[in-house]
Write a structure and sequence with these properties.
heterodimer; A: about 110 residues; mainly beta; seven-stranded mixed β-sheet; B: about 120 residues; 11 strands; globular
Chain lengths: ~110, ~120
């Protein structure tokens, strides 16, 4: 069974540029998560989807971040415009059912904003 | 914000020794999970312990949970160099709390196992 797929793995951009990350969850997993992980820290939830509905986006900085999960499968996370402080690893995870289930993580996208 | 606090922040041991990592949390939980993260990789789920469980085993892993003290420990027995990684505890909030519906991670323990 294929795991969670993320692309790109690495991205370097200049500040004020837009950037997008893509995630393909494990087939059949209804719940999808985007996390931000700063160096030396644990992941912090940005947004959680159940199917195509964003059920928790309270930690998503909505002035510059947006996300979508069309058809309840793949998801994209966008930052526009990027700031220096956005440099981090962006992790996608999925779980079969509710948030209390085991979450399976992708390898992450390491973003560097110059 | 991160609910869990892990202790120690870093642990260095020799192959064959046991490694113990502790996690404390603040609010009521539904379950507590431990994850491993190798450098530059995503997180891998190790074990889940529910709030009504006290101890769980999986291979060389032993997890305990004390809800009265709001703490958990992860024991890795007979450690190997391949166990070198960061280990995170994560809590799934209980009903009625502000953390309900979220998996909240601690800052992690960096484990180094020397061959």
């Amino acid at each position: 069974e294929a795991g969670v797929v993320q692309s790109p793995r690495y991205k370097i951009i200049e500040k004020k540029q837009p950037v997008a990350f893509w995630c393909n969850p494990i087939s059949g997993h209804n719940t999808l998560y985007w996390y931000l992980q700063n160096l030396g820290q644990g992941p912090e939830l940005l947004i959680r989807y159940e199917n195509e509905e964003a059920v928790d986006d309270s930690q998503l900085p909505k002035d510059r971040f947006s996300a979508e999960r069309l058809k309840g499968v793949d998801s994209t996370l966008k930052i526009q415009p990027a700031e220096l402080g956005d440099s981090a690893v962006y992790l996608c995870a999925s779980s079969l059912g509710s948030h209390t289930d085991t979450q399976y993580f992708g390898p992450g996208t390491r973003l560097t904003v110059l | 914000s991160q609910q869990g606090e892990e202790d120690p922040q870093a642990l260095s041991i020799q192959e064959g020794e046991n490694a113990t990592m502790n996690c404390s949390y603040k609010t009521s939980i539904n379950n507590l999970q431990w994850y491993r993260q190798n450098s530059g990789r995503g997180l891998v789920h190790l074990i889940l312990i529910r709030s009504n469980e006290r101890e769980k085993h999986s291979g060389r892993l032993r997890v305990t949970l004390d809800t009265s003290k709001k703490s958990s420990s992860l024991l890795i027995t007979a450690s190997r160099a391949a166990d070198t990684a960061s280990y995170f505890c994560a809590t799934s909030g209980g009903a009625g709390g502000t953390s309900y519906g979220k998996l909240t991670f601690g800052q992690g323990t960096i484990l180094t196992v020397h061959p």
